[in-house]
Amino acid sequence: MDPKFTRHEIETGRALFAGDWRFTAAASTPASLPKMHGTEIAFAGRSNVGKSSLINALTGRKALARTSRTPGRTQELIFFTADEKLHLVDMPGYGYAAAAKSKIAQWSELIEAYLLGRANLARVYVLVDARHGLKATDAPTFKALGNAAVSYQVVLTKADEVKPAELATRVAEVEAAMTKWPGAFPGILVTSAHTGTGMTELRAAVARLLNER
Ligand code: GDP
Prior knowledge:
The protein is of the alpha/beta class. The chain has helices spanning about 5-15, 50-60, 100-115, 140-145, 165-180, 200-210, and strands at about 20-25, 40-45, 75-80, 85-90, 120-130, 150-155, 190. It has a single domain (about 5-210), classed as P-loop containing nucleotide triphosphate hydrolases (Rossmann fold, 3-Layer(aba) Sandwich), CATH 3.40.50. The chain has a 7-stranded mixed beta sheet with strand order 1-3-4-2-5-6-7, with helices on both faces. About 40% of the residues are buried. Bound molecules: guanosine-5'-diphosphate (GDP).
């Protein structure tokens, strides 16, 4: 399951996220993407997966990323930073059935332009609800990330909603299913924004990632 992190990675990860995180930019078209600066890590996932909550928990900010937006409405990439070296990118939620077709097309164009042109994008964390596991609508995301040769990894959210035995089964299922996606970084991370489970590990994983670049 979770890789073991060193004390140094855990401390570096803690320090990385301990700063004063703020909103820096929002882009709804490829032309409005901010200039590349520092290293970016992005968060993707189905609408309502808990993406805003996870970003807020990671950064220790209550309302940095806005929670409870109308699912499928936000068609923007939103950028946050604390120190200009590490940037977090909140990607639009997907998989919301009622989203207009035109919005879906816009999402694809924006995301494709972003993924293909972003040399400083170190990893995309694809969030998956621990209660439900992978859904059919996650597949196009894995495909797009693989096609763009972007490193991505699955992060389970809302682990607090699932009993430990069921959680272990879910982790095994998702890990097994992800072996079919050769672009996926091996192993998945298990988190809960509500209890803080997995925050230390996710921050340490980011510290390791930055150290490897
Ligand atoms: P987003 O649409 O992916 O940004 O999801 P949000 O962060 O807005 O969360 C969607 C819903 O899931 C909200 O009702 C949150 O309170 C709930 N939620 C988010 N994270 C957790 C979690 O770790 N545990 C539980 N139980 N609920 C969560």
